[in-house]
Specification:
This protein has 269 residues and is α/β, with parallel strands linked by helices. The chain contains ten helices and eight strands. An eight-stranded mixed sheet has the order 3-2-1-4-5-6-7-8, with helices on both faces.
Length: 269
């Protein structure tokens, strides 16, 4: 992993998942500081500066990159104490949903080097997907460092148009919840069809997770994989007649993604 001092602000589920990935990739604890006010989830890493507040951070620690992994609603209170790092030239990488580059410039200064990222929760098992957009002033080396850090927990893509981040949030940021809902709905339908609840849940979970792994490993498109499992006139084809009807799954997802995209824009203010 590329060198340089790194400050992680927030070590909840996403911050903690990224931290584990960085350490696995060889991040040196001496180059790391973590600010996490909740003692119960504060990591214990020998050689690193692990503190509960910005005021407790060693005065000598000067990060090259600050990763903001705190909830959007706590960002206003956190940024004033961090502005000195922006003034000193540190790059800020935010994974906070809805917080725009303009928002961060207002709090960290117009010349702050900013990268906005939207990861998702499969990062916890190193299978996350993240999309990033870089602000003005972010050079190739800063972009590469962010790419390196985020790729520790999955795949990384970049966009040039920040307005696309609302749709990214709707599709992939919120997307794991849709997949989990699918597993819930399949299990519930199985129970209605007569299966014991425990077996229906096991079948649904295993089918969703196994199919996801097949999708990840296969070079075929999702559409082709669907075709591969669908025998003409068989049981799958009969179910797909319902799911692919004109008023069924696709229009439903269109509305859901549109609703999440609109809400992302509203949260951005």
């Amino acid at each position: 992993m590329a060198g340089g001092k790194l400050l992680l602000v927030g070590c909840g589920k996403m911050g903690g998942a990224m931290l584990e990935g960085w350490l696995e990739r060889g991040l040196k604890p001496v180059d790391l500081a973590v600010i996490e006010p909740v003692e119960a989830i504060r990591p214990e890493i020998a050689g690193a500066a692990i503190v509960g507040s910005i005021d407790a951070l060693p005065a000598s620690f000067a990060p090259d990159l600050v990763v903001l992994a705190i909830k959007p609603q706590t960002m206003d209170a956190a940024l004033p104490g961090l502005r000195r790092f922006a003034d000193a030239g540190a790059t800020f990488l935010s994974i906070a949903a809805g917080k725009t580059l303009t928002y961060f410039r207002q709090h960290l200064g117009e010349r702050a080097k900013l990268v906005r990222a939207m990861p998702n929760t499969p990062a916890a098992v190193r299978r996350g997907v993240t999309v990033c957009v870089a602000g003005s002033g972010v050079g190739p080396s800063e972009r590469d460092r962010c790419q390196d850090l985020l790729s520790a927990v999955g795949s990384v893509d970049w966009v040039d148009d920040e307005s696309l981040m609302d749709a990214v949030t709707a599709v992939s940021g919120s997307g794991p919840a849709y997949v989990f809902l699918l597993a819930e709905a399949m299990a519930a339908a199985g129970v209605k069809a007569g299966l014991p609840a425990e077996l229906a849940t096991k079948l649904a979970r295993g089918t969703v997770s196994g199919s996801g792994e097949l999708l990840a490993r296969s070079s075929d498109s999702a559409a082709q994989l669907r075709i591969n499992v669908t025998s003409p006139g068989g049981t799958t084809a009969e179910a797909l007649k319902v799911l692919m009807a004109g008023d069924a799954m696709q229009p439903l997802f269109d509305r859901a993604i549109d609703a999440a995209t609109r809400r992302s824009r509203e949260l951005a203010g």
